[in-house]
Structure formats: C-alpha cells, structure tokens
Amino acid sequence: MTELYDLHCHSTASDGALSPTELVQRAHQQGVTSLALTDHDTTNGLVEAQLCATTTGIRLIPGIELSTNWQDKCFHIVGLGIDPDYLPLAEATHNLQATRLERAEKIALKLEKKRIPGAFEAVKKAAGKGMITRSHFADFLRSQNHVSNQQEAFDRYLAKGKSAYVSTSWAELELAVSWITGAGGVAVLAHPLRYKLTANWMKRLLTAFKEAGGQGIEVITSRMNADEIRIAADYATRFELAGSMGSDFHNATNQWVELGRLAPLPNNIKPVWELLG
Ligand code: AMP
Ligand code: MN
Ligand code: MN
Ligand code: MN
After folding, report:
1. Banded model confidence at residue 277, pLDDT cuts 50, 70, 90
2. Among candidates 269, 262, 259, 10, which has minimal Cα distance to 133?
3. Which atom of ligand 1 is closest in space to residue 151's alpha carbon?
4. Is residue 42 lining ligand 1, measured as CB closer than 6 Å?
5. What are the structural domains of the chain?
6. Cβ(134) to ligand 1 under 6 A?
7. Are 80 and 244 in contact (CB under 8 A)?
C-alpha cells in the first residue's frame, strides 16, 4: 500500500466542520494512511480520533496547532507525535481555552459597536465544547448576511487592523516549542509562506525557531504552486529542517482543499515522519 501522509487538519474540537470520527473516516476514504489531527490550541479531539483510527486501520499521529507570538507577530506551530497528557501542555491548552473565550467576548463587543449584536452567544453555541476561533465569527457574519463569504468576513472585520480585530497575547514561540518537545513531539512551523515575511525576517524567525528546538517546516500545504513549494523547500534545506506536508483541511466546502490531496514532498527533503517514533 502506498503511504500517504496528511499532517495538518482540524475537527470540531476547534474550527473544523467534521467530528474527529468523521474526519478520520474521510481521510481513510481519501487514501490517507497517516493522519495528524492538529486542532487550534487543543488536544480534545484526539481520544475520539484515535478510537476511530484504530477501527478504521489508519495511523493517527496526535497533534496540535499552537498559536504563538514572536516579535509581536503571530505564528502557528504544529506539534506532531505529542503526549497530550504532558502537564505543561495540558495546562497551557486549558488556559488557552479561557484566553479564547475572553477574546471572543471582546470581538463580540466590537461587533456590537458596529450594530452587529448576538455574536458571542452564536459563536459559543457553534463552538460547543471546542475552541472558539475567528472562523466561528466569520460563519456567524455570513449567516447573518453581513458578508457573503469567510474571506470577506476577515477582510472587513476580523483580520489584523480591521474593526473587530482583537490583538491577543499567545505564548511566546520558544515556550510553545518547549511544550511540544517536552511532550515528546516534533515542532513544525506551519504554512511558512502565509506570514508574508521578507527573506531576512524569515531567516531570523527560523534561527529563533531552531534555537528553541524546532525541527520541521511545512513544505507542502494545500493550494501551493510549484514556485511556493520550491521556496519552502529551500528554507527546509538551508535551515536543516525536516519537511512536513498537510492539507490544513477545515471543511468540504473548499474544493481546493481536501484531506490527502497534496503534492509529494520533494526528494531532497528529509520527511518529518522519519523523526516520529
Ligand atoms: P484564530 O486562531 O481564532 O485567530 O482563527 C484563525 C483561523 O481563522 C485560521 O486557522 C483560519 O482557519 C481562519 N482564517 C484566518 N485568516 C483567514 C482569512 N484571511 N480568510 C479565511 N480564513 C482565515
Ligand atoms: Mn483554522
Ligand atoms: Mn494555521
Ligand atoms: Mn491549521
């Protein structure tokens, strides 16, 4: 059987549309043989995902996508092969739930000032026991016809600098990496080209990330063209980082993003899964 890795996706434990069970089943249908569930700042979906993976016969790699700060910017760090019971990580995710709840209240207040009431109740209901994210606000704004799609919700209200943006202090990158490595996992810089950093800033970031114990970088994510893959692969080579691949799947409405639908990792890149036990 051909191995197919997808090491980045989301369930209802954060801003994904599918339950962990549905997600694992869909990954299996798409031919994925190893799946990492990497919800935003939570490991709560992992138990259910593992149960389903065992019955389905797919390998589940326990993961997380941590929101972090470095030089006052926000970066996402994926942890792969983590022990979710590692106490500092478990405490951190517990605290992050409160951080996200408080942030949601502030975002809702800003929307109220824009004469858009009811957001907090709506996102809280939609997220259920899961993490509340800006995606939930985007869904709410669309359902109330304030915007016609997710992107517009970010462009008009939720993105940095827009009227309902709330700046949040996440964990410092070095600390977040230490939670991952302490939990026995491999830290991977998520979607490196999405931060729009100059080459010089990228160099500073990757130097700091490596010094903190980071070992991987996503070289293949959805919707990357050949040039972008080459740029990401160059960073992996230059900074001696292993390459990861993941769809960042959230839901089935975006036809360009599907579990396991990924270009192969370039031959000269060391696959991150070789670092996983
Ligand atoms: P949060 O972690 O709560 O700030 O929410 C971040 C999530 O919102 C990301 O993981 C994406 O799923 C989504 N997101 C962020 N920026 C955008 C954007 N410009 N367009 C659509 N979705 C976005
Ligand atoms: Mn998301
Ligand atoms: Mn991300
Ligand atoms: Mn993600």
Report:
1. confident
2. 10
3. 20
4. no
5. 5-86+171-275 (3.20.20.140), 93-158 (1.10.150.650)
6. yes
7. yes
